[in-house]
Amino acid sequence: MKRILVTGALGQIGSELVLKLRKLYGADNVIATDIRKNDTEIVHSGPFELLDVTDADAMYQIAKKNQVDTIIHLAALLSATAESKPLIAWNLNMGGLVNALEVARELKCQFFTPSSIGAFGPTTPKDHTPQDTIQRPTTMYGVNKVAGELLCDYYYHKFGVDTRGLRFPGLISYMTPPGGGTTDYAVEIYYEALRSGKYTSYIAKGTYMDMMYMPDALNAIVALMEADPAKLKHRNSFNVTAMSFEPEEIAAEIRKHLPHFQLDYDVDPVRQAIADSWPNSIDATAAKEEWGFKAEYDLQKMTEDMLARLEQKIS
Ligand code: AKB
């Protein structure tokens, strides 16, 4: 049975992943940690500890005390926030990662951390972006993600830490909103469609980015962590995606359910520049071949589910 430490457990991924892992591996075997505490199921349904991931000793003590054998390191600043606070992003995203890798090395833990489509840049091929390609991002977040991928490779080759990772696209979910990302518009649009029937997008018409519905992202994490290590040729993060769309396409899908939904634009130059530097659509062949990645939700199926779930939540 696994004993899993999750950092950043109250964030967009963590708040759903912890519940899934507790169902799979037992509530007491998943130790959720975050720099803050709130009154959610994550905090009450199993062990929870306050943890600032830049505090290496605190992370080690929590991992050791709980005898963990797996670390899922999620705590990080997303792209737009990292761009407005680059030094804080460097310290948190890189400092937290190296601390978590060190704990994994010392306690011989399996290790997962997400990378992102943000690990690509303007000179990367934009369409069907390959697994192994040019990675020269122009954002602090991207610099962190590429350095993070290399660091995970390094810990695998140098120390034998069983590191695994996914390059996530924008993740869409109804439980916990993302914060400070470039792809967040694709979550906000559903909330606003239900609340006010209209949405002003900070991302311009015609801007394609990869996206994935949270259930597919969670299944991908579990499948990759369970995958036979002998089959993994890549230790840097795997490209994974479920769909690629631009604002007009998601609006058209929403109008199938809410015909009067209106979309207009007030483009934010910072987030638009980040989006423009990212691929239009990435190629997930390596993930499919090496550990059987598959996604269940396309734009149509996700929109049906998102609107139904959010309607229940908001009403
Ligand atoms: C962001 O927009 O920063 C994230 C990501 C794609 O990594 N959602």
TrEMBL record:
Domain NAD-dependent epimerase/dehydratase: 4-230
Name the UniProt record assigns to this protein: L-threonine 3-dehydrogenase
Species: Thermoactinomyces daqus
CDD domains: TDH_SDR_e
Gene Ontology process terms (BP): L-threonine catabolic process
Bilayer-crossing regions: none
One Gene Ontology MF term: L-threonine 3-dehydrogenase activity
Phylogenetic classification of the source organism: Bacteria, Bacillati, Bacillota, Bacilli, Bacillales
Family of this protein: Belongs to the NAD(P)-dependent epimerase/dehydratase family.
One Pfam family cited in the UniProt record for this chain: Epimerase
Domain of life: Bacteria
